[in-house]
Amino acid sequence: MKLIPGSKASNEAPSRRWGILQRVVRSLRRGFGVSRITLVLYLSVLAFFGIFFVLPIALAVRGAFLDQTGALTFDYIREVFRNPIYLEGFTNALKLAAGSTLLAFLIAGPLAWISERYEFPAKRTLSAFLLLPMMLPPFVGAIGFLQIFGQEGAVNALLRTIGWLGQNQVIDWVGDWREWGIIALNALHLYPILYLNLVAALANVDPALLEAAENLGCTGMRRTWRIVVPLVMPGIFAGGSIVLVWAFTELGVPLMFDYSRVTSVQIFSGLSDIDSNPFTYALVAVTLFSVALIYIAFRALVGKPPPVMPGRGGHAGQLFVLSGLRGLLCSSFFLAICFVALLPQFGVLLVSFSRDWYRTVFPQSFTFQHYVLALGNHLTVPSIQNSLVYASLSTIVDVVLGVTIAYLVTRTKIVGRSLLDTLAMLPLAVPGLILAFGYLAMTRRSSLLSFLDPAQNPLVLLVLAYAVRRIPYVVRSAAAGFEQASVTLEEAAQSVGASPFRALKRVTLPLIMASLFSGSILAFAFAMLEVSDSLILAQKQADYPIAKAIYQLSNILGEGRYLAAALGVWAMVFLGLTIAAASRAIGAKLGALFRS
Amino acid sequence: MDSGVISRFPELFGGAGDLLIPRSLGGEQYWDARGRWVGTCLAEFGICYNTGVLARLGVLRPPTQWVDLTSDRLFNAIALADPTKSGSVAKAFELMIQQQMNQRLDELTVSEGQQLPEQREKQAVAEGWERGLRLLIRLAANSRYFSNGAERVPMDVAYGEAAAGMCIDFYGRFESEAVAESDGRTRLKYTSVLGGTSVGADSIALLRGAPHPQIAKAFIDFVLKLEGQKLWDFRTETPGGPERYAPRRLPIRKEFYREPLHAYMADPEADPYHDAQEFEYHEAWTAPLFSAIRFLVRVMCIDSRGELVSARKAIGSAPADSPAWQKLLDVSRVRYEIAVQQIRDTLRSADRLKEVQLAEELTTYFRNQYREAERMARGEK
């Protein structure tokens, strides 16, 4: 190697920098009071979140405040609030979100109350069925919903058959009640989140308080309103805020309903000229701030902890056993909700087997052909393969990160571990739409990470997007496992010579495997049908995951809608089985994963 | 780049003969003289309609012209696609406007023989532009929605969500076949709008720097030879036809529109070379305003659709010269010269803020206008 003047100095520079870094690490270790490996893990996790969670969101927001010359401007944000179209999109998003949340409450509230209070026939099975709609993306159900409620769809055909409508009459369900259709699909998809939270919250209400109220003459609805509702407020906050934000930023359903005057669709439409249109950034920024405001407002309104919330104190809640007609009524009510909630999916199922379905209650004739064609279609099979690859890789990332975070939070005393815990849960609050947009902003031409451009290959970004969005599930299940597995076992292993890593690998990990498995399988299942990220980040046909393939197929002439339905059914069956397995493993703790 | 295709197919692109494909027809270019691109199939715009829904709505005569879609009976029954999302849809809207310009020019030619041809053309373009915009407003006033994708139009019409819609020929024909009964009867029909659409060519080209130019040239040749052309629109199970689906695209070679090949066509009634003569596309009239037309459809029809539809409902079957109709169809704010100057310049500017502000201003203007028309209509009743 040829020596050049100054090379000694340049050789010394890295070693000097390395020395400084070592000193920093040492002082950090002293400051944090942890081992080197713990510190490295902690900093790595923070770096991951910094680059793939905080940075994209920051870049998406930044674009809203810089003009063409790079100077600070508030013009774009101001214009969003001045422009009637953007404003209407924003208020529509709020209306849809509020309507969806309210309807979800109306469905979930009675169910949770009955479930917590009564025992009735087939309760366990029906309760499990109630959770199914949560697992199936509503935009897939939209195919069935539109078929059922179309002008020449099943409901109008039924009304004609029973004579409520004349042969030349139709009710324009979708046209006249488009917003209600979106609200219904959102609510039917999201009510399980509220149901799980409410059941958990109701289970925590101390029966002694209810008895005390009753002794003092406060009974019936008054007792529910004065005692139960304040006590379950945290549950309402937890579920309600997730549902509200979810519906506020829902993209798939409005797209399927051709409802374009809503912020999420306006952002989606703006992606085609992301390099030159600052208003999409402004919409993203406004959406993000709104989401933050929703959380704050929800916490202020209903999230105040109840004045007294003692534990159950050994009291078991009284479960009234209903038999005979009353029991049957409860079962029927649960069954009816299951039926209505799964109606769109039944519609998808029927479409997937129908030759044609027009002006009749059920398809005129059935065929298995669409499933056969789907096997040879250039979109379906690759999309299943792609989704399996994306979801598997993202689950691996989630498991590695989730175990690391859970370990740092539960097993170490590192300063800032609660911050880490909060950071790991934050993706639940950030809509996929915003994160995906941030990834696009982060990998724009001429940016440092442009080599990750999803137009070339979306693998890395999709895996990361799925992983970041679903990491809370894995962190929570791993943390629950760590908390249940006594630390003394690990200490015992270390006292007989095992290194901390070996003790973790040989003792603790096998103990938390069941818990970790259920969290991972949930993360995997959701990643398989992730909608917003997939619609935005997968840009080439060969890279489409299932969700995007279904959307594309539903817009293809001829057999497209049938193939979309067939692929949707395949995905639903796959997801249903996965979730059933997860739900069996994780049991009653499923609700805990959806609490913020 | 030049693929050499012109010299390899002299019977199509050279000299004379009845196989010769014209360089241009009805104002549309069909092949490049330097061989950089050549058309392989033809496409035109038209109307798809659901016979059952039309019958239900009491429309006895199927629509054949754009103006037929503005009928009172088709209120809230027309499916349209968003021209800001699709270039071909924007082109269809442009052709509607050009049809009005052509018609105005014909009227002026007949009535004002003394006028200089240039003046006559200028007047026809300006007045036809306004007539065209009025047609667009009336069409949008009957619309159910503006869908994100042009494919949704024939699909929704086929499944009865709309009575009729505007679509490109092969979308309509393909979907029509897809919902046909086993005996060939179909509820979805398609008709090209004679005199309301140009017939354009979809082309093929060899890209500069192509990694396998010989294979690319061989493919271009295949697409232009009879065996390739048969695949565009021969029925399935005919000699040389496609195996599973006919793409329902109209081949560019002329021999497909006469016997013996004509007998095998999936669309024997189609004759694009005849249709092309019914319309003259003048690039200079509207092509520079292509973005402006998209923009105007957005502000006049899509972003203000709620007010427009509401006003149309209130107007009902009032006579065309009623004040409410006049108000609804007032396009003086976006006259041809304003479109050429203010709107086009703003859209060309790199400052997106200006574009958004202009959109906001015009949307508000038209919304107020439609609200006013609605008030007038209600006052008249």
Kindly report the name of the CATH homologous superfamily of the largest domain in chain B.
Periplasmic binding protein-like II
Please state the CA-atom Rg of chain A, rounded to the nearest Å.
26 Å
Structural class of chain A: mainly alpha
Regarding quaternary structure, what we see is: heterodimer
Q: What's the shape of chain B?
A: globular
Number of domains of chain A: 2
Low-confidence stretches of chain A are 1-9, 308-315
CATH level 1 name of the largest domain in chain A = Mainly Alpha
SSE string of chain B? HHEEEEHEHHEHEHEEHHEHHHHHHH
CATH topology of the largest domain in chain B: D-Maltodextrin-Binding Protein, domain 2
**Cα separation of the termini of chain B:** 65 Å
Give the beta-strand count of chain A: 4
Strand arrangement in the largest pleated sheet of chain B: 6-5-7-4-8
Residue share in helix of chain B: 40-55%
* Number of separate helices of chain B: 16
Largest sheet of chain A: 2 strands, parallel
Short structural description:
Chain A folds into two domains: 82-137 and 170-341, MetI-like fold (Orthogonal Bundle); 368-596, MetI-like (MetI-like fold, Orthogonal Bundle).
Structure overview:
Chain A is mainly alpha-helical and 596 residues long. Chain A has two domains: 82-137 and 170-341, MetI-like fold (Orthogonal Bundle); 368-596, MetI-like (MetI-like fold, Orthogonal Bundle). Chain A contains 25 helices and four strands. In chain A, the strands form two sheets. Chain A has a two-stranded parallel sheet. In chain A, strands 3-4 form a two-stranded antiparallel sheet. In chain A, helix 2 (36-62) crosses helix 19, helix 13 (263-270) runs antiparallel to helix 14 and helix 22 packs antiparallel against helix 25. Chain A is globular and about 90 Å long. In chain B, the strands form three sheets. In chain B, strands 6-5-7-4-8 form a five-stranded mixed β-sheet. A three-stranded antiparallel β-sheet of chain B has the order 9-3-10. In chain B, strands 1-2 form a two-stranded antiparallel sheet. Chain B folds into two domains: 5-44 and 198-270, no CATH class; 45-196 and 282-380, D-Maltodextrin-Binding Protein, domain 2. Chain B is globular and about 65 Å long. In chain B, helix 5 crosses helix 13 (305-315), helix 12 (290-302) crosses helix 16 and helix 13 (305-315) packs parallel to helix 16. Chain B has helices at residues 5-8, 10-13, 51-56, 87-111, 117-141, 152-158, 169-178, 213-224, 226-233, 272-276, 283-286, 290-302, 305-315, 323-328, 336-348, 352-380; strands at 24-25, 28-29, 37-43, 45-50, 78-81, 143-147, 164-168, 188-192, 200-205, 250-251. Chain A binds chain B through residues 68, 75-76, 79, 82-85, 146-147, 150-153, 168, 170, 172, 174-175, 255, 258, 260, 269, 276-279, 356, 358-359, 555-561, and chain B through 52-53, 55-56, 76, 82, 85, 144-149, 151-152, 154-155, 159-161, 171, 174-175, 177-179, 187, 245, 303, 350-353, 356-357, 359-360, 363-364, 367.
